[in-house]
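Our example copied in:
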Amino acid sequence: MNNATGCMPTLDGLKSYDDALALLLDHAQPPAERQRLALRDCLGRVLAQPLVSAIDVPAWDNSAMDGYALRAADVPRAGIRLRVSQRIAAGSPAMPLQPGSAARIFTGAPVPEGADTVVIQERCERDGDTLMVGIEPQAGANINRAGQDIRRGAEIIAAGTRLLPQHIGLAASVGVPELDVYRPLRVALFSTGDELLMPGEKLTAGKIYNSNLFTATGLLQSLGCEVVDLGIIADTLQATREALASGAAQADLILASGGVSVGEEDHVKPAVESLGTLEMWKIAIRPGKPVAFGHISGTPFLGTPGNPVSLFVTFLLFARPFILRCQGRTDVMPRLIQVAMAADWPRADPRREFVRARLQQDDDGVLRVQVHPSRSSAVLSSVTWADGLAVIPENTPLKAGDRVGFLAFSELLR
């Protein structure tokens, strides 16, 4: 892609996407503080230590169907009649099965000692206490064996798992009332820019509403973070330094939008360098080249561009996996699927591009990637139009039908 002078943009001093991500993840550390919470309060939290089952599930052999429990050897052929000696409902104890008899049994009820099969009720006929078995049963049929689902001593949820409803249910199934989880990550958030107004204020010449605050807050909350709102910071070096110091004192991570470029009103880089260390500044991606990472008094700092699309994209690409790893998560990278391009992409760029796109189904039922017509980082409506990001490799023009990676927002926004 040519710039305004007709020259290819230089990549001098820019980190590759892969190197930048590796650097961030190498610096990510979960908080040392853990919490022991009641099971009902653990949804969305990250498990701090593996959950090992203290019991077998099921705890005993039980019936998989409504029917009759019996010995297969007592019914060598269809048509044999047996006496019904007991009735066993789920939750009720079972007496040992008397030879030559059957037990009426219901789904989930314990299989009585001496029985080795359950015949479903549809294959039987009953007259009072006499049962006619209409098939030759097979030993072991329709029985859930003890430990068939979970064995005592088995690890059933790994440490670093974000607990979803199914994990909560699984923990309950082995009788666990509480879990050890990491505490939520506290993130101090601020926006830079004298042009920013809060929604509800009167819009005047040269001003814009601070959409970044609400976008970033929503992204952080969707990841289960506690947000410390430091507000809008004036475009001065001193104000930026004060915001960084305040964030370092209150939070596990400082996240800033804007002020990370090289303009006269961009003070984040010198402010970070004066208070701490700056490990990364520019990345060879589009959009979002100026992404800063460093530390203030030991607290990690992430700075994103001020353009709203660049904030959104760089948060998903870099802040999200960093935050997930800092939460103790092990599954920090989204799944990348391969999908065909709907149209040509002739504009090769030396940077890796993460293009706003959505999937569409053609007349043959094939999913294809449709790219948003605007590449502008200021067009925030494009990220509501899109349902993901198409990943265009460096220096790679594409033809319709060529396959590219696609990162779905459904993967990235969780």
Observations:
- The chain has four domains: 17-32+184-326, 34-56+155-182, 62-144, 337-412.
- The longest helix spans residues 308-326.
- Residues 1-10 have pLDDT under 50 and may be disordered.
- The two ends are 33 Å apart (CA to CA).
